[in-house]
C-alpha cells in the first residue's frame, strides 16, 4: 500500500513539473518582443499639415523635408505651400492646416477673428540679429539719419509687423506720434522699387529685400539688430493642440533641429535657401544666410509690446493675456 501511494505521488509531482515547464516556455514565448523577425510597430505621429510661404522663416521646414527628419521620427507631416499670408491665414481659419510661421500681429488678428491659436516658439528673432527689419532711405533723398525723418512719410504695409517696427524705431529715437508719417504700400517688391527709384523717400523692408536695397544704393538709417523688436512665431490652431499636442511638440523639435543644421552648415543649404526663400538673383552669392536659435517661447514683454500696440491702433478691442496666446509646453 505504501509503495503504491509513493508511486502515485511520484507521478503527480512529475506531471506538475512537466506542466510548469510547458507554462514557463509558453510565457517566455509570449513575452518576447525583441524578436528581429517581428519588431514592435511604432505609432505614426500626426497627421499634421503646415502652411508655408517662400520666406526665410519657413526654411527649417524645407530642410527637415529634404533631410527626411520628419520620416526619421515616424511623423506624418505635409507642407502646404501658399502664395500669400492672406491665403495661408484663411486656410488656418478654415481648419485646412494645423499651423504656420507668422508674426505676433497675425496672432492677435487670428484670435480676434474667432480662431484661437497658440504660439509655441519663436522662429526668427530669438536674438536681435535674426530676422532683420531695416529702415532705409532712397538713394537721392538726402536723408542720412533718423532725425531727418521727422514728418517724412515712410512706406510701410499698414496694420502689420512692418508698421509696428517703424513705430518702434521712430519712438525709440524720440519721435512723437504726430511726427511719424506713413505711406501705405502693402506689396514689398513694389515698395522696394519705389524706394530705389526715389518715388518714396524712406521705407521699411525685411531681409533679403533690405540687403538688396542697400546693394542697389539705398541708405541704411536704422534696423532692429540691436534691440529685439520683431519676431516670427510658430503657431498652431488651439483645437489642433488639444487633439495633436504630442505630434506638434515633435514639429517644434524638428524645426529646431533643422534650424540648427542650417546654422552649422549654411553653404550646404544655400541652393535650397535660394529656391525656397526667393532670394533675388543679384545677391544669391553674397547674401548671408539666416541663422536660427533653439526654439523658445516669446517672452511676456515681447508679446505685450505687440498686443498693446495693436490695442492702441484699435486693431484689437482688448489686450489678450500671455496665457491666452502662448503655450509654453510645446517647445522642447
Automatic annotation (TrEMBL):
Domain Solute-binding protein family 3/N-terminal, chain residue ranges per copy: 49-266
Q: Which InterPro entries match?
A: Solute-binding_3/MltF_N, SsuA/THI5
Q: Does the keyword Magnesium apply?
A: no
Enumerate the UniProt keywords alphabetically: Signal
- One Pfam family this sequence matches: NMT1
Q: Where does the source fall among the domains of life?
A: Bacteria
Its signal peptide is: 1-24
Q: Which SUPFAM superfamilies match?
A: Periplasmic binding protein-like II
Matching entries from PROSITE patterns are given as: PROKAR_LIPOPROTEIN (PS51257)
Membership in a protein family = Belongs to the bacterial solute-binding protein SsuA/TauA family.
Q: Which PANTHER family match?
A: ALIPHATIC SULFONATES-BINDING PROTEIN-RELATED
Q: What is this protein called?
A: Metal ABC transporter substrate-binding protein
Q: Which organism is it from?
A: Heliobacterium mobile (Heliobacillus mobilis)
Amino acid at each position: 500500500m505504501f509503495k503504491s501511494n509513493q508511486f502515485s505521488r511520484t507521478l503527480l509531482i512529475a506531471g506538475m513539473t512537466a506542466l510548469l515547464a510547458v507554462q514557463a516556455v509558453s510565457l517566455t514565448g509570449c513575452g518576447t518582443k525583441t524578436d528581429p523577425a517581428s519588431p514592435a510597430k511604432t505609432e505614426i505621429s500626426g497627421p499634421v499639415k503646415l502652411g508655408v510661404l517662400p520666406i526665410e522663416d519657413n526654411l527649417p521646414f524645407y530642410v527637415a523635408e529634404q533631410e527626411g527628419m520628419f520620416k526619421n521620427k515616424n511623423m506624418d507631416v505635409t507642407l502646404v505651400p501658399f502664395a500669400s499670408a492672406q491665403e495661408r491665414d484663411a486656410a488656418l481659419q478654415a481648419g485646412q492646416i494645423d499651423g504656420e510661421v507668422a508674426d505676433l500681429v497675425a496672432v492677435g488678428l487670428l484670435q480676434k477673428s474667432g480662431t484661437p491659436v497658440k504660439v509655441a516658439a519663436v522662429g526668427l528673432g530669438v536674438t536681435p540679429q535674426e530676422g532683420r527689419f531695416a529702415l532705409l532711405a532712397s538713394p537721392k533723398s538726402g536723408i542720412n539719419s533718423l532725425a531727418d525723418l521727422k514728418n517724412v512719410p515712410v512706406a510701410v504695409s499698414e496694420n502689420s509687423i512692418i508698421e509696428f517696427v517703424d513705430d518702434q524705431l521712430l519712438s525709440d529715437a524720440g519721435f512723437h506720434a504726430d511726427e511719424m508719417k506713413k505711406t501705405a504700400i502693402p506689396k514689398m517688391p513694389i515698395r522696394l522699387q519705389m524706394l530705389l527709384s526715389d518715388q518714396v523717400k524712406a521705407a521699411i523692408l525685411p531681409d533679403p529685400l533690405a540687403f538688396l536695397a542697400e546693394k542697389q544704393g539705398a541708405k541704411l538709417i536704422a534696423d532692429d539688430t540691436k534691440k529685439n523688436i520683431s519676431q516670427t512665431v510658430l503657431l498652431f490652431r488651439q483645437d489642433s493642440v488639444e487633439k495633436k499636442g504630442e505630434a506638434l511638440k515633435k514639429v517644434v523639435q524638428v524645426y529646431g533641429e533643422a534650424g540648427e543644421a542650417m546654422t552649422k552648415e549654411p553653404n550646404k543649404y544655400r541652393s535650397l535657401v535660394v529656391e525656397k526663400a526667393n532670394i533675388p538673383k543679384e545677391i544669391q552669392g553674397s547674401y548671408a544666410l539666416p541663422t536660427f536659435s533653439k526654439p523658445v517661447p516669446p517672452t511676456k514683454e515681447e508679446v505685450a509690446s505687440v498686443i498693446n500696440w495693436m490695442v492702441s491702433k484699435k486693431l484689437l478691442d482688448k489686450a489678450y493675456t500671455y496665457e491666452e496666446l502662448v503655450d509654453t509646453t510645446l517647445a522642447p
